[in-house]
Batch of 2 targets.
Target 1
Amino acid sequence: MSLAKSVVATRLAIRRGLSEAEAAIYIGLGASKFSQLVRDGRMPKPRVIDNRRIWDVDDIDAAFKALPIEGEANDSARPNSWDDLIP
């Protein structure tokens, strides 16, 4: 018996790859704000599978942790963009 993709997706607690809308929801933002963060380098660029853009949860987590924390002094040694995190 084969299950439909939509049925399987609802049974998974979290998927490794997320659409742009799902990635935005994952970090608690709307899609347009998430797109802005991707453009300015504060969130990672997507991976590409054929013509689909997919965000890796691990990449999003790393970028989210690199965001400044309210009330803490900015550490100049801390990377300011996702591109700075890539070796």
Target 2
Amino acid sequence: MTEQIVEISREIYDHRNPERSVKKLEGLNEEVVKAISEEKQEPEWMLSKRLNALRIFLEKPIPKWGPDLSTLDFQKIRYYLKPEERKNMNKWEDVPNYIKKTFEKLGIPEAEKKALAGAGAMYESEVMYHNLKKEWEEKGVIFEDMDIALQKYPELVKKYFMSDCVPINDHKFAALHGAVWSGGTFIYVPKNVKVTLPLQAYFRMNSPRGGQFEHTLIVADEGAEVSYLEGCSSPIYNENSIHAGCVEIFVHKNARVRYHSIENWSRNTFNLNTKRAVVFENGIVEWINANFGSHTTMLYPCSVLKEKGAKSEFIGIAYAGKDQNQDTGHKVLHLASNTSSTVVSKSISKDGGITTYRGLVHIAKGAKNSKCKVQCDALMMDNKSKSNTIPYMDIKEQKVTIGHEASVGKIDEEKLFYLMSRGVKEEDARKLIVSGFVEPISKQLPMEYALEFNRLVELEMETSLG
């Protein structure tokens, strides 16, 4: 077997372009919300939803549990940043050159050529490129920029957008998203169509004090299948930024959706994201979630197993270094009989970083023969770091099977000694042990994204170990 050597450079993620936004909307008020809606020429019902969401956001208090959000000033954030005008969203050569170079550094065009059914690229508050290969378009698959989808498929979007899955009053940051959302991805897969190659979108923030609020809406109709990958990154500044995106997934009867996400926001970003799937009869949702960057993350993807036989599988990893607080986990709601779920959560903390698994398992009365297994593993690289496990189980039915395992530990000194006794340097031995720890996540990713994932792990370990 030939070992692949990947050169590691933080500059891939931390490079920044000079700010060239042609429209900037700062502060949070009714005028800003109306201006965003007017800029996008939205229907009246969407503006009404936005204004209602703003009212809810202003009324709801900052959460008192979880990480400290006191240094985030919502009035200093730029809620809409419009880059240069797009010429043709379907042609890569028409993307402004400085934006094109950014995404080329991140490998987006190459990935589209080799391994994707379609790709999208969002820069600041607007999607700059979006394209679906003709083969899938002919089968009725819709893969659009969320703003464009609202114009082209208004009734379909209205049916699903922030109603049954993530309503605007769900929590404070869902309301914030509902007020100022911009860009994102809309996917609809018709009945019995199986998209055999992944679809991908990459979200990039560039400016200081920026906010990104993309909306991802995935609908897999009966018997349909689709795999979707999201990547996110931003350069580091001295001023805080915010990411408060939203992902809504609808998995209809006998359908299957696999959602991958690698979030690598800079260390000045507050990542307050919301992700949820509603799964109908015998449907399957699979989550693969990795969080590396951000100053503070509060993210708890949720599976609502609404009808009998629905199934959810979640694998997640959180990585916290110096001055990082990764508060993540998974929620699963068993609302019908014979539903099943598995949750595998891993975390790594070093240099005083804090990781927390915050999970919920709810089994409703009548959800007989439901099964759920939760496994949480935490690896601490030093004595300064912290790891917390806060599971909550709300079981209303007796005929169920529930399992929960949790472990917190440091690098096994015996394994370290064994590798060093075979001539492996200590630094490399530690990297090998960490790679083994995160293998359950990397082996679930397509090859190109597994390389990206392993590159990020190695980069963080390199920083940690000097």
